[in-house]
Specification:
The N and C termini lie far apart (80 Å). The protein has two domains: 1-36; 41-208, Mago nashi protein (2-Layer Sandwich), CATH 3.30.1560. A hairpin with a 4-residue loop joins strand 2 and strand 3. With 217 residues, the protein is of the alpha+beta class. The strands form two sheets. The protein has a seven-stranded antiparallel beta sheet. It contains six helices and nine strands, in the order H-E-H-E-E-E-H-E-E-H-E-E-H-H-E.
């Protein structure tokens, strides 16, 4: 014999129980989303170290954003461009050993690079393109701006503290050795950082199409 009242009671109990269970079933999903280790780079803070180019005024007029060469986060994430000189898309993403970035920053700190960062004056001409290296990791801050990599692709040119000049038969290394000490230190620090970053770029990666935040100056 059917019992409508009993059936209705069971249905109400089931609905009540279902309403109580739904928030609990969402909890693991929310936790997983918050703790996901593969969060996209644009969803995090700005990178601890970034190398990017600032094109000349003529080229810059038709571009949006700055072409990034490589961006490294303290947790081991890295985004890099296929072009190691001009930067820009297409980008790849991957991971590196975080302790290697820490080792680089510690080494620079022992050399008082961050303490003396003010001595590294920008080295580029008016309206010209140049490259920038920014380190923004806690109290360790550094910004280097220089155009020498662009011009020294030409084997007959050298970027000195006073501008771009031809070698005229001289060796580039010899001419740089005669430059003022602050400029020589800028070039040495620049080379050290660039070589270290290049060594941290993985051989392969996955496509990356997100934004890359530029650290505050």
């Amino acid at each position: 014999m059917d019992d409508p009242a009993g059936e209705e009671h069971c249905r109400q109990v089931a609905l009540k129980k279902d309403k109580q269970m739904k928030p609990l079933t969402l909890l693991p999903v929310l936790c997983a989303a918050l703790m996901a280790p593969n969060a996209r780079a644009e969803e995090t803070n700005a990178p601890a170290l970034i190398v990017y180019t600032v094109p000349s005024m003529r080229i810059r007029a038709g571009q949006s954003g700055l072409p990034v060469i490589a961006a490294l986060w303290s947790d081991g994430r890295i985004v890099w461009s296929q072009s190691r000189t001009n930067g820009g898309p297409p980008y790849q993403q991957g991971r590196f050993a975080p302790e290697k970035l820490t080792s680089l920053l510690d080494k620079l700190e022992r050399k008082n690079v961050f303490k003396d960062a003010a001595q590294f004056r920008p080295n580029f001409g008016v309206d010209a393109g140049y490259m920038t290296i920014v380190i923004a990791e806690g109290r360790r801050r550094l910004r280097l701006d220089s155009w020498h990599e662009f011009f020294e692709r030409n084997t007959n040119l050298v970027a000195t503290a006073g501008g771009i000049t031809t070698l005229q038969g001289a060796r580039r290394e010899d001419m740089l050795r005669e430059q003022p000490e602050p400029y020589r230190r800028l070039r040495n620090t620049w080379s050290e950082i660039r070589q270290a970053v290049e060594a941290l770029i993985p051989k392969t990666g996955e496509p990356y199409e997100g934004t890359i935040p530029i650290p505050a100056k």
